[in-house]
Specification:
elongated, Aldehyde Oxidoreductase, domain 3, Aldolase_TIM, seven-stranded parallel beta sheet, TIM Barrel, Putative pyrophosphorylase ModD, Quinolinate_PRibosylTrfase_C
Length: about 280
């Protein structure tokens, strides 16, 4: 997948860890000695950010000979990346590249699990990951979920319309139908999504013209009931199940008929375990 992550961003990652070179390597006087670095999966995982890790290693002076592409599901023992170069370059890029791939692959692995589990029940269900990425890590986090088959729920506040209950508290005296009509007038090219937290509100939101009704922390059984009722009243409206969706319950929500599963779970996944071996040549 093409993601436009600039060299400046990769340089920023390096500057955080090795702003003035590796003091240990410099003090030992081994910086010019040639070596090879191999990244290998210790467990089954979905690869992510391998291309960015390779670019990072090239930036510090390595030659990358082998890269397993993001999105590949691999077994333990699979080689993910192989780089040659002087010891100074290998040791400078080592931990940043390893950590980047481990965190991104952890996100991708959990996202792929949710997608696979949900689509085994309903091949048309969409898994959408929220904007709750760690600040500063949005680009890599989005790449990780997208190579796993999920989509971004919202890239940010500026490009989507999602009405929260927290917005509604300021609509003093205005009906929901009136507010949604205004939104459709002001943002005619945007779908109108509204998050609700009660069954009655869900039906009212659909009748008021919401394109997507986002059910926050509803059980699969209640979601199933609302999907059936909304199909009778407003068949155009889509139902999104949000709040607590994870690999363990994704199939239940898909079976309940939710069109979209909204989740933050991948972003809080444990890092994948990737082994790095560095050898002199």
């Amino acid at each position: 997948m093409l993601m436009l992550i600039p060299d400046a961003e990769i340089d920023r990652w390096l500057v955080e860890d090795v702003p003035f070179g590796d003091l240990t390597t410099h003090a030992l006087g081994i910086g010019e000695r040639p070596g090879r670095m191999t990244f290998q999966a210790r467990e089954t995982l979905v690869v992510a950010a391998s291309e960015e890790a390779a670019r990072l290693l090239v930036r510090v002076g390595c030659t990358v000979n082998e890269v397993c592409p993001s999105g590949a599901k691999v077994e333990a023992g699979t080689r993910l990346l192989v780089a040659d170069g002087p010891a100074a370059a290998l040791l400078a890029g080592w931990k940043v590249a390893q950590t980047l791939m481990e965190y991104a692959s952890g996100i991708a692995t959990v996202a792929a699990d949710i997608v696979q589990t949900a689509r085994a029940v309903n091949p048309k269900v969409v898994v959408a990951c929220t904007r709750k990425t760690f600040p500063g890590a949005k680009a890599i986090s989005l790449k990780a979920i997208m190579v796993a088959g999920a989509v971004p729920h919202r890239l940010g506040l500026s490009e989507t319309v999602l009405v929260f209950p927290e917005h509604c508290v300021f609509l003093t005296g205005e009906s929901l139908a009136s507010a949604l009509a205004r939104l459709k007038c002001v943002c005619p090219e945007r779908k109108i999504v509204i998050e609700i937290n009660s069954s009655d509100q869900a039906l009212l939101a659909a009748q008021a013209g919401a394109d997507v009704v986002q059910l926050e922390k509803f059980s699969p059984d209640v979601v199933a009931t609302l999907v059936a009722r909304m199909a009778e009243v407003t068949p155009h409206a889509k139902v999104a199940a949000a709040g607590g969706v994870n690999p363990a319950n994704a199939a239940d929500y898909a079976r309940a008929g939710a069109h979209i599963l909204v989740t933050s779970a991948p972003y809080f996944a444990p890092p994948s375990d990737i082994k790095v071996v560095i050898s002199a040549r």
